[in-house]
From TrEMBL:
Signal sequence extent: 1-21
Protein name: DUF4038 domain-containing protein
Transmembrane segments: none
Putative collagen-binding domain sequence ranges: 375-464
Domain Apiosidase-like catalytic stretches: 39-372
PANTHER family: ENDOGLUCANASE, LMO1036 PROTEIN
Pfam hit, one: Apiosidase
Organism: Flavobacterium johnsoniae (strain ATCC 17061 / DSM 2064 / JCM 8514 / BCRC 14874 / CCUG 350202 / NBRC 14942 / NCIMB 11054 / UW101) (Cytophaga johnsonae)
SUPFAM superfamilies assigned: (Trans)glycosidases
Keywords associated with the record: Signal
Amino acid sequence: MNLKIKSLYALCISFMFTAQSGFSQSAKTKASLPEIKVSKNQHYFVTENEKPFFWLGDTGWLAFGKLDRAGIEKYFKDRKEKGFNVVQVMVLHNINAVNVYGDAALINEDVSKPLITAGNDFKDAKQYDYWDHVDYTLDVAQKNGVYLAMVPVWGTNVSKGNKVSKEQAAEYAKFLANRYKNRTNVIWLNGGDTHGNEFQDIWNAIGNTLKTNNPNQLVTFHPFGRTDSSENFHNEKWLDFNMFQSGHRRYDQDSIKTNFKEDNYKFVLRDFELKPTKPTLDGEPSYEGIPHGLHDTLQPKWTANDVRRYGYWSVLSGGAGYTYGHNAVMQMFRKGDKPAYGNKELWTSAISAPGAKQMVYIKKLMEEVPFLEGVPDVSLVVNQGEKYDYIPAIRGEKYALLYTYNGRIIEVKLGKIAGDKFEATWYNPRNGKKTKIGTFDNKGTQNFQPEGKKEDGNDWVLILKSTK
């Protein structure tokens, strides 16, 4: 779209008509994905027909701005094939956002004035705008069975320079709620890598507006590193579930003594006990391929081993799902782009990174058991350790799952699940293969030793299932 041939007056008139009439291109799209809602026990997610829904997310933060239509097709087809069912994305990275086709998102960088044109014909630049491309992406995601967890406006636009007022935010949220009211594959991530104790009037205005207008679309808050939405918004009615960002630093890189450092499972264990009960999950752990601590590119990079560890630590502590990330994919790095965080890999190759391929095994494992009844129970582990020796444990009525990141022996306190006997199996998080161990009496304690030497990345899940 060539903005020079359009008068600002015409653009404003177009916007006013759209906002006031409630017209929405997405309203014409037939929904094909079931709505996602909170489970009856309030700890997990289910579809509208009560089918368990395990959140396996990817961070495609800049997809709206940096991918063309072919790129959108390629990315979502790949994520479907790898088992992802949620993609986290920014609607507005910046208030001067322009997509790959040169379409600006806003008039005069004002979030209360989305730049909208009549029609959505891609072949006619005058009839295809930023928001039409968002609609197209939602359609492609829907076709691939993917839900978009969308950040309305990234947190730095609010926290730095006061570029967004409460009034503008509320008007913008009303526009979003109206445009996407008939979309069943939309989830809202309020905030965006920002401190929840700052500018709460703006975040509450966005959250309340989205939830009031579209009560069936889930809303949460994506917070700053090492913080959790529950710390500032747990009791807000607009917040349906909690999300925390466990962050990208090592234990020794943290200067804050009061947070949980790399121990992302501690966020889950804390949130699991809060009232009112709400699901929780790690929405941004350390990304595969990103330097430890983010900014020093000479530091080692986080690997597939690390993203697996964060995944199993949190999910086997009661997390309702898990979001994976890769340095190149989260910024949709293309040839000619200025790299962030030392990245040198194109997103088109990074989508096949080892960790991305292995995430599906977390989802498959949880879908094998009735995970909606899962309750974290660290008392299952007799020889509990700290840091990388930590062993999370979760159980249902007839199953228990325990995880070692480094091949430690696991001493299990038995009698915690139903039945006189149980079958034990090793599950390999790197390839999803199972190795039967044997059948045991369900009493006393029992040691289980994984194969291989004790070293980081030699990770295993111990599956215990009642034989009756």
